[in-house]
Write a structure and sequence with these properties.
about 300 residues; binds flavin-adenine dinucleotide; TIM Barrel
């Protein structure tokens, strides 16, 4: 099976949303409301993050169960930092039992605020996790092939000293059996286009999904700086945010406009998919859809149809 025959990519470009597993009842209720609102747009899939080392294990599985039971193809994330093979196998079994047919295979980052013994880890790189997943699925005789995604960093992973070597490591993940790449969030489309070209030159032919996160508040921007290792913030965006002088409505408008323009340009350049880092909120994503002229699920379907016609 090629990636393009995966349910995640039966319509291109794919549109997908990322959620994190809430740890409180209030957070869970909010997330369900967000899922209900965004489901109207028939996402190609949603993905659910995993706390490296297992801190969100049960919560991740609960969200996967929720979204799968609503008929939304779901991609749970899995990180190998802090896990043995037996633990990873157990988590994969839980995901497939919950109905997931896909997984995003990641290394994760060692925990900063708890003791961590790296000698326990079965794997040190995401490529080894991809290999393990392929071995595991074969041994299980699942009867279907999991769609496996991996992370890509258009502006470079912060640990990587050499961009060329980094591309070799990315290719190793695909050669081990990854079906698609989802990128770190970025604000400069040139970085994405350049990355996509480098992948194609390297012979990495799988779909490359662009990760987009609109700035919606100054506190969100601070959180983003934490989460988005390796991402540059363009001065054009930062200047516009400074002009807003902390006015919440203006900051949100600027962030949504910026992300809408980014997405429009990506769609014009035949991006394989757009993955929205939603932070469990629906407003910004819905506004971006509207700004792109995609007011309803009907418009999304029409975009897919037009793309097929032009490509035929
Ligand atoms: C789309 C996306 C989703 C994410 N979701 C989560 C999540 O749910 N939970 C979470 O904890 N984190 C998540 N992360 C963060 C991610 O776990 C970290 O950025 C982590 O540092 C790198 O993970 P990776 O899978 O890219 O690792 P790898 O591909 O293993 O790469 C990590 C570093 O090691 C280098 N490297 C790779 N292979 C080798 C090798 N053989 N020899 C030497 N160096 C090598 C790479 O160049 C890179 O610098 C996500 C990131 C992205 C982009």
């Amino acid at each position: 099976m090629s990636a393009s025959s995966s349910v995640l990519f039966d319509r291109t470009p794919s549109f997908s949303f990322e959620f994190f597993p809430p740890k409180t009842q209030e957070g869970a209720d909010n997330l369900v409301q967000t899922i209900v609102r965004l489901q109207e747009f028939h996402p190609s899939f949603v993905s659910v993050t995993y706390g490296a080392g297992g801190s969100s294990r049960e919560f991740t599985r609960a969200v996967v169960q929720e979204t799968q039971s609503r008929g939304i193809p779901t991609v749970p994330h899995l990180t190998c930092v802090g896990h043995t093979e037996a633990e990873l196998a157990d988590i994969l079994a839980g995901y497939t039992k919950a109905g997931a047919r896909a997984v995003l295979a990641l290394r994760g980052d060692p925990p900063r605020n708890r003791p961590y013994d790296p000698t326990r880890d079965a794997f040190h790189h995401a490529s080894e996790l991809v290999r393990f997943i392929r071995r595991w699925e074969e041994a299980q005789g699942l009867g279907y092939r999991l769609t496996v995604g991996v992370a890509g960093f258009p502006e470079g992973h912060p640990d990587a000293r050499n961009r060329l070597r980094e591309m070799d490591f990315l290719k190793a993940k695909v050669d081990e059996g990854a079906d698609y790449i989802c990128t770190q969030l970025f604000f400069d489309n040139h970085a994405f286009f350049d990355f996509r070209d480098r992948c194609r030159i390297m012979g990495i032919d799988c779909p490359i999904i662009a990760g987009i996160m609109p700035v919606t508040s100054i506190s969100g921007l601070n959180r983003m700086a934490d989460l988005s290792a390796g991402t540059n913030f363009p001065s054009r965006l930062l200047k516009a945010l400074l002009r807003a002088g902390g006015d919440k409505g203006s900051v949100e408008r600027i962030g949504i406009n910026y992300a809408s323009n980014q997405c429009g340009e990506l769609l014009d350049a035949d991006v394989d998919g757009i993955h929205f880092y939603t932070l469990n909120k629906s407003k910004a994503t819905l506004e971006i859809y509207r700004n792109l002229g995609l007011n309803s699920c009907y418009d999304v379907e029409r975009l897919h149809m037009l793309n097929h016609l032009y490509k035929a």
